[in-house]
Amino acid sequence: MARYENLSVGQLQVDNIVNGTFSAWPFPHRKLFVDPGGILSDYGMDDVYLTLTAAEEAAVANQHDTVYIVSGSTSLSLTAELAWDKSYTHLIGCCAPSTIANRARIFNSGEEIANLLNISASGCVFQNFYIFQGGSAATALGNTTISGGRNYFDGVHFAGMGHVTASAETGAFSLKLDGAEENKFANCTVGVDTAVRSGANSQVILDSDAHRNEFVDCKFLSASSVTTAVMVNLADTSAALRYNYFKRCLFANWSLNHTAGGKLAACFKTPPSVQTNDLIIQDSMLVNITEWQASDRGNIWVLGSVGTAGTAGVGSSGQSIEPS
User: Fold this and answer.
1) Distance between CA 202 and CA 158 in Å, rounded?
2) Strand 12-13 vs strand 8-9: parallel, antiparallel, or unpaired?
3) Model-level pTM?
4) Which CATH architecture does the domain made up of 99-321 adopt?
5) Among 190, 252, 253, 178, CA closest to 216
């Protein structure tokens, strides 16, 4: 089958219209296009697929194959969990890099899909797309689970708990790092502030010794009618090891008229007797969240200029470190 290394539409090439550091590679790689709206159908292209599942299955692991989502008025729909298990295989959205509700869209059409995207691969780049878990079933709890390591995420919106049914469930989440290590998230958005959370759930779950993961310039969004929901939850005493790092991040919880019931009590939840781990927060801000951690576990480290909207100071559970 013929293969096109450079897709051209008029004077534009994919490597020119895809925004971001990793849109052009310094070595040959296969390009696969997912085109749910049929935009490319008139160009006689090979390696064009209507579903993301078909494109991922066609990619070859360890070859730096890249799957491009062609944005448009039609979104992609998943009918089952997508397993991204091919290392050094990348997923890039061809759309404006808005970082919130990007127009390269992946939705849930199965309603009862427990988790939309399961990433066990390592060494992959994920960039510039929106994945939305809006299943109306109580079992549609998760958006994305990552167990792989050393992946890079740039401008991805992990939008979990997009329906009030799931957002009432304790185990619901937008992003779960299950043993994941040394992943970096830059300019990403986690969560939504449109479906109101009424359960004690979390936008991010750390589990199975997840460690050395970095969040830089990321937004964590929420809307809540209860105080017990959190942004980041350490699932158990061995949830994280060594450190996880949050730099210039915004943790913003929306509550109608800033009512007391919708103001989160804490950003992080850590169980007692947790093994040695550190949550390092640099130049970040809480909005409509009382403090970093409700119970002082001795593992919250706050560096630099830290803002907490609506409260005085950073809360008793944070240890402040002045930058050198």
Assistant:
1) 13
2) antiparallel
3) 0.87
4) 3 Solenoid (2.160)
5) 190
